[in-house]
Amino acid sequence: MEYNKKHWTPEGFAADGSRTYKVKKSYETELRAQKICFEINLKPETIYKLVAYKCPVCNKWHIGHHASKYLDEKDKIKIQKQYNEWKIIHGIR
């Protein structure tokens, strides 16, 4: 199996000590993946920003960390404003 970190995520270790992987959760549409990102990024316990991206392996959408971007309170306020505007643009409640 060819490992591509955009499509696979580490899961654990096999009996022989080799790394095992599982397919990342995928979303059919960019809108759905973005909505999930906004919701997760706004949770108080989320400290690293998540972003949606199109997978080059399966052509669906996955969610991943944004180069270890740490979220502070100022970032969360900005994300909430962006989310509110995004929902209006896309007609989402």
Q: What's the SSE blueprint?
A:
Blueprint: E1 8-13, E2 19-23, H1 30-41, E3 48-54, E4 61-70, H2 73-90
Antiparallel strand pairs: 1-2, 3-4
Helix pairs in contact: 1-2
Number of helices: 2
Q: So what's the overall shape?
A: globular
Could you say which structural class the secondary elements and strand pairing correspond to? alpha+beta
Q: Residue-averaged pLDDT, rounded?
A: 91
Helix content: 25-40%
Q: What radius of gyration results from the CA coordinates?
A: 16 Å
Question: Could you give the order of strands across the largest sheet?
Answer: 1-2
Describe it for me?
The chain has 93 residues and is α+β, with helices and mostly antiparallel strands. 32% of the residues lie in helices and 30% in strands. The protein is built from two helices and four strands. The strands form two sheets. It has a two-stranded antiparallel ribbon with strand order 1-2. Strands 3-4 form a two-stranded antiparallel ribbon. α1 runs antiparallel to α2 (73-90). It starts with 7 loop residues before the first strand and ends with a helix.
